[in-house]
């Protein structure tokens, strides 16, 4: 049975979601490259996951997996154009992380 999150854990998780959404909205509305948007969103997610892990809080593997894949895709896209819109990929990543966090209560 999964344990309940503390109030501080929930605040950090919601702050992470908020930062990812605000960063996405700012970067896509100001003409930043999709690779940069995906990279920054992935870095926010990775830093949050590492912070929560260092505090010995529960962090799902989906957080590190999503952040790692996002970072690799954004770094690759700086050198070789990808046939997908990375801003859309970062949007899907944000929605997936939030949904997994809400559904499993472990993000």
Brief rundown of the structure:
The chain crosses the membrane at residues 12-28, 34-51, 58-79, 85-104. With 107 residues, the chain is mostly helical.
What is the string of helix and strand elements?
Answer: HHHH
Helicity range of the residues? over 70%
How many separate helices? 4
- Derived from helix and strand composition plus strand pairing, the structural class reads mainly alpha
Write down the overall geometry: elongated
- Count of discrete structural domains: 1
Spatial gap, N to C terminus: 16 Å
Strand content: under 5%
Poorly predicted tracts of residues: none
Please outline the helices and strands.
Blueprint: H1 7-29, H2 34-54, H3 61-79, H4 86-104
Helix pairs in contact: 1-2, 1-4, 2-3, 2-4, 3-4
Characterization of the model:
The chain crosses the membrane at residues 12-28, 34-51, 58-79, 85-104. Keywords: Membrane, Transmembrane, Transmembrane helix. With 107 residues, the chain is mainly alpha-helical. The protein has one domain (7-104). The chain is built from four helices and no strands. α1 packs antiparallel against α2, α2 (34-54) packs antiparallel against α3 (61-79) and α2 (34-54) runs parallel beside α4 (86-104). It is elongated, with a radius of gyration of 14 Å. The two termini are 16 Å apart.
């Amino acid at each position: 049975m999964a344990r309940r999150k503390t109030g501080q854990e929930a605040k950090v998780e919601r702050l992470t979601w908020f930062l990812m959404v605000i960063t996405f909205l700012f970067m896509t509305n100001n003409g930043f490259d999709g690779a940069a948007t995906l990279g920054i969103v992935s870095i926010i997610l990775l830093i949050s996951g590492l912070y929560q892990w260092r505090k010995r809080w529960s962090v799902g593997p989906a957080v590190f997996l999503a952040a790692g894949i996002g970072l690799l895709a954004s770094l690759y896209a700086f050198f070789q154009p990808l046939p997908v819109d990375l801003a859309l990929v970062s949007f899907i990543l944000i929605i997936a992380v939030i949904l997994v966090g809400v559904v499993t209560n472990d993000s």
